[in-house]
Design brief:
Layout: E1 9-12, E2 15-18, H1 19-50, E3 53-54, E4 64-65, H2 69-75, H3 78-109, H4 116-128, H5 131-141, H6 148-155, H7 170-195, H8 199-207, H9 212-223, H10 225-240, H11 244-249, H12 261-271, H13 275-300
Antiparallel strand pairs: 1-2, 3-4
Helix pairs in contact: 1-13, 2-13, 3-7, 3-10, 4-7, 7-10, 10-13, 12-13
Amino acid sequence: MSKKFPGMYFRFLGKTYKKHDAAVGVCFILPAFVLGCIFIISPMLVSLSYAFMNASLLKLDSVTWNGIGNFADAFQDEYMWNAFGNTMEFVVKVVPLQLCAALGLALILNTKIRGNTFFRWAFFCPVMLSLAVTSFLWMNLMNEQEGLINAMLETFGFSRQPFLESPDQALNVIVFISAWQGAGYQMLIFLSGLKNIPPEIYEAAAIDGADSRQKFFRITLPNLLPTFSFVLITMLIGAFRLITQPMIMTGGGPVDSTMTMSYYIYTQGITFRDVGYSSAIALLYTFFMAAIALTLRKVMDVKD
């Protein structure tokens, strides 16, 4: 601390700060902090309290204590377990597909091919479209009666397919659309990770006689591990939160085959107005996702 101007400094947690710089920093962070408290922290606390209440969206002034009743009902709810099973099936299918597509595209674009810039833009273009627009686009393309894809199938001698009307096909269609829409974003992250690998390592490996396969498994993948871990965790969290595509394209059907956990929480809280029950399910689901993310971080030894 300056002995000449002691009033210009202060100590906090064993460190010395200049009052003017600290005030500027507080002014910059204060708007984000206030908005975060209003739109993130406060709703989370309210939802946490409602999880232990009998609360209707239309009668929030007359809530009653329910203890763990909502949680007990959730574990006995066969529709919730069906939604959980659909969500897990979606995650198991979409994550490997999207991960392989993103990594494959990044490896292709990391080479010096003609039109590299155009292909980067083309692969990333679906990411710039909102999920609502993408869902409406594919819903029209896959319409059984008037869709372009079924018209093309019929032209080549195949029968029309009830893509979104079939319980056996609807979820797989959403898996494909989700992977197609999101792979471009992860592709750019992988591409940045590939650019950070020193080319000298590949040159030394080539001198030692390593082929492309050996370079990929012994150089590329180990150096991409931090990037791979980040992409995997963010992709898993995004997959667990699936709601837009089934909401717009199938409404959770047919026969609840595309009803996901996020959509089920929404229907319980908004459609059926059971805010207490939906908050309890949301809390359980949040703990589940947090456990998955923390386990992956531990297993993959991700460093901050």
